[in-house]
């Protein structure tokens, strides 16, 4: 058995998001978000599930903080619900909304846990969507206004700031594939949304710097490792398009201030062009202090004419699968972050999400023996260690997720938590994976 030891300043954490855990959807002045609308649109979410109650963390946040403290994490990543702060997206600040997050942040700090806050994890105020949402450039200013209120309210308390969670999901998953809120299926619209979200990210970074807010700011992109099935040029080109759709389309603007030209041309051929205004690319590529990467899986693809958006079909090569039918491809984590480091330089990296969904069974004595999830984490921790040993500036890891929670279009049937949530009683029960991670954090390593 080989000993795997992490640097003493390595940040172990877990992650959640507002709409997925808070519930209290109409409490204390919260306005409706696009996920309230989408989840209550018949056929959009499994079983008609919605976030009205979720894990009720709005009322049970102290239980969550106690679980985090017992777990031994150094940091906790959560998101702030814009509709709690500005029920109509802009206008007057809803102080009661801010009060909730003041209690969470103060509770975390009292427990010795660093709050790491995502400003936008998909719950756009519906009132802004009614005016075009991210397709409307006015939403950029609304986001900066909202961000400024949060920056000022928590300056000195929150030290790690993430502007957006997964602009790929906000744009292509939600506005081209139509699987997430608001559920559009238009490529040009999705390209507009992606661009405007990245401009909004850059404008928020500028505001953060202008205000002299303490701490570090970055953004989180979901990176997917995707390789050609064969060495044929057709497979290589097809796989590169598919990978770039997820990775380069967002990382290039963020770090190089340009879009990958081969994909710009490809989208142009599909009738979609990027609505760049003068100054946009400089704004998007504002220097950031870290990059958050969400990694779950990867795969192989080959050329197949007229298959999907990129003439590319995924090829099954025998990976084990999670309950989301995602490949368990831990080496992909090493490959994608090595690639990102090589391509985009030495900006510190945090894995802001990594985890797995399996069919969990709660035993009579309220235990969950989630062997497969433990194995998933162990495999990915080893790859984290390989990355650190290889000189990649990997500074921390946030397990997704602290709790079983509202898994978007999959509703509550898909569980990612290291803590089991009983949705009838809202009781929380740590799973075996929780105790595994607790031990890894305590020893800052493990026997591989
Ligand atoms: C392809 O996976 C994505 O990177 C991804 C996976 N996940 C995410 N993004 C979101 O950030 C979370 O809100 C989800 O709950 C979580 C699990 O589905």
Automatic annotation (TrEMBL):
<keyword id="KW-0136">Cellulose degradation</keyword>
<feature type="binding site">
    <location>
        <position position="121"/>
    </location>
    <ligand>
        <name>substrate</name>
    </ligand>
</feature>
<dbReference type="InterPro" id="IPR018120">
    <property type="entry name" value="Glyco_hydro_1_AS"/>
</dbReference>
<dbReference type="InterPro" id="IPR017853">
    <property type="entry name" value="GH"/>
</dbReference>
<feature type="binding site">
    <location>
        <position position="20"/>
    </location>
    <ligand>
        <name>substrate</name>
    </ligand>
</feature>
<dbReference type="InterPro" id="IPR033132">
    <property type="entry name" value="GH_1_N_CS"/>
</dbReference>
<keyword id="KW-0624">Polysaccharide degradation</keyword>
<dbReference type="GO" id="GO:0030245">
    <property type="term" value="P:cellulose catabolic process"/>
</dbReference>
<feature type="active site" description="Proton donor">
    <location>
        <position position="166"/>
    </location>
</feature>
<feature type="active site" description="Nucleophile">
    <location>
        <position position="353"/>
    </location>
</feature>
<feature type="binding site">
    <location>
        <position position="165"/>
    </location>
    <ligand>
        <name>substrate</name>
    </ligand>
</feature>
<protein>
    <recommendedName>
        <fullName>Beta-glucosidase</fullName>
        <ecNumber>3.2.1.21</ecNumber>
    </recommendedName>
</protein>
<feature type="binding site">
    <location>
        <begin position="407"/>
        <end position="408"/>
    </location>
    <ligand>
        <name>substrate</name>
    </ligand>
</feature>
<comment type="similarity">
    <text>Belongs to the glycosyl hydrolase 1 family.</text>
</comment>
<dbReference type="GO" id="GO:0008422">
    <property type="term" value="F:beta-glucosidase activity"/>
</dbReference>
<dbReference type="InterPro" id="IPR017736">
    <property type="entry name" value="Glyco_hydro_1_beta-glucosidase"/>
</dbReference>
<dbReference type="GO" id="GO:0005829">
    <property type="term" value="C:cytosol"/>
</dbReference>
<feature type="binding site">
    <location>
        <position position="296"/>
    </location>
    <ligand>
        <name>substrate</name>
    </ligand>
</feature>
<keyword id="KW-0326">Glycosidase</keyword>
<keyword id="KW-0119">Carbohydrate metabolism</keyword>
<keyword id="KW-0378">Hydrolase</keyword>
<feature type="binding site">
    <location>
        <position position="400"/>
    </location>
    <ligand>
        <name>substrate</name>
    </ligand>
</feature>
<dbReference type="InterPro" id="IPR001360">
    <property type="entry name" value="Glyco_hydro_1"/>
</dbReference>
<dbReference type="Pfam" id="PF00232">
    <property type="entry name" value="Glyco_hydro_1"/>
</dbReference>
